[in-house]
Amino acid sequence: MGIADEAGWLRKGACRSSDPELFFPLAPSRVQETQAKAVCADCQVLAQCRDYALRAGESEGIWGGMTPEERRRARFPAGWRTPATT
Ligand code: SF4
């Protein structure tokens, strides 16, 4: 199943009518992040979007109200890697 099939919910995304630059900025900023997250907060498919992005390991852009950095931390929480014992 490709992304277009799996992500049919994307058609219902609140970001469909937003400026793509808000979600996939060339130069991310705190203001842009805040504005994108505000759109996500009112999105009816936020849960599916966040779940997809975390599973797929999307490394770019705002998905499901989360920045790439926030998704990385959610996927690999602090302490997930146990120190090697020698
Ligand atoms: S949660 Fe955000 S990025 Fe995902 S579809 Fe909705 S508005 Fe778009």
Instruction: Name the hetero compounds present.
Output: iron/sulfur cluster
Order of helices and strands: HHHHH
Q: Hey, roughly how much beta strand do the residues contain? A: under 5%
- Percent helix range: 40-55%
| Rg estimate, integer Å | 15 Å
Number of domains: 1
Q: What distance separates the N and C termini?
A: 43 Å
Characterize the largest beta sheet: strand count, sense, and whether it forms a barrel.
none
* Number of distinct beta strands: 0
Number of helices: 5
pLDDT averaged over residues: 90
The parts where pLDDT drops under 50 for at least 5 residues are none
What structural class do the secondary elements suggest?
A: mainly alpha
Shape: globular
Cofactor: [4Fe-4S] cluster
Keywords: 4Fe-4S, Cytoplasm, Disulfide bond, DNA-binding, Iron, Iron-sulfur, Metal-binding, Transcription, Transcription regulation
Function: Acts as a transcriptional regulator. Probably redox-responsive. The apo- but not holo-form probably binds DNA.
Family: Belongs to the WhiB family.
